[in-house]
Amino acid sequence: MGQRGSVLLLGGAGQAGSDTATLLRRRYPELPLTIAGRNPERARRVAGELGGATAVTVDLARGDLGLPAGEQYAAVVATLWDSRLNGLRFAQDHGVPYVSLSSGMIDIAPEVTAAAQRPAAAPVLMASHWAAGVITLTALAWAGEFDRVDTIRIGAILDENDAGGPAGLADLARWAEVTSAGYARRDGGFAWSGAADARVELRGLDGTTVTGQTIPILDVTSLAFATGAPDVEFAFAVGESAGTRRGDGPSVEVRVDLEGAGPAGAPLSVSRYLVHPRGQRPLTSLGLAMGIERLLGLRGDAVPPGFYTPETLLEPAHVVERLADAGTLFVDA
């Protein structure tokens, strides 16, 4: 495969980490993986189930992460919140790619600063978008049908029983504690709004509505600059999903509305749902796995040092293909 060392998955025994490791193992059977966690028993269990993987105990409070000296790693993947960013510094010190998932828009300043201060140290992928960027990439794929995009509205309905494991729940609690304000691009400007003004009603495929709100998330800025659309918003709601109502278990629905002009200049609009019957976990793990394989050069050339977001590395059409292969459904609204 060319790369030296193992892919180090911080929080690899959690939901996002273990699902991502499973996808990588399935696609690249010989890729070395290291499952790093605070609970050695859980890490060993996940590593054993994967096969060809090792388990280590990690301490995010230490600059060396508490890892044995002399070990070589091909990449560092933070699938949980690393408030000290020791995972990023460790990757920079060793000159290997780094991927983060849990910073969120409200927490990115330290990460951006650390990456900017050492731009030649390592490639850094900030994937704190919804589902690690696959929604943004899907919207960009559909935006390819337009000559000009004026408006992008995305509404994601997450099942109340599909918010993730302890790390995912902690992320949601942290973000909710910091702000209840909304965020969007309006008439070309990026602006915050109060919680009342940010409130929206999201309609699922079966017609059921759930109250949500526009949220500060990196998908807004990524889509705004990638398309030039002057109006972009991403709304989010937690409630009972259509899958749960049917008795099939938590599902996830994301509606993407695009408005603008077609190649001939005539008005054009697209409204589609992205649906996965097993919830958000397959989407997030796929986004992470695709980012890792791109950074390592498992698809395309290895990525040079720099600061990246998912849409700068991944091809929208390829992401849609992989989502479909993973069981995602695309339905016209």
Automatic annotation (TrEMBL):
<protein>
    <recommendedName>
        <fullName>Saccharopine dehydrogenase</fullName>
    </recommendedName>
</protein>
<dbReference type="InterPro" id="IPR036291">
    <property type="entry name" value="NAD(P)-bd_dom_sf"/>
</dbReference>
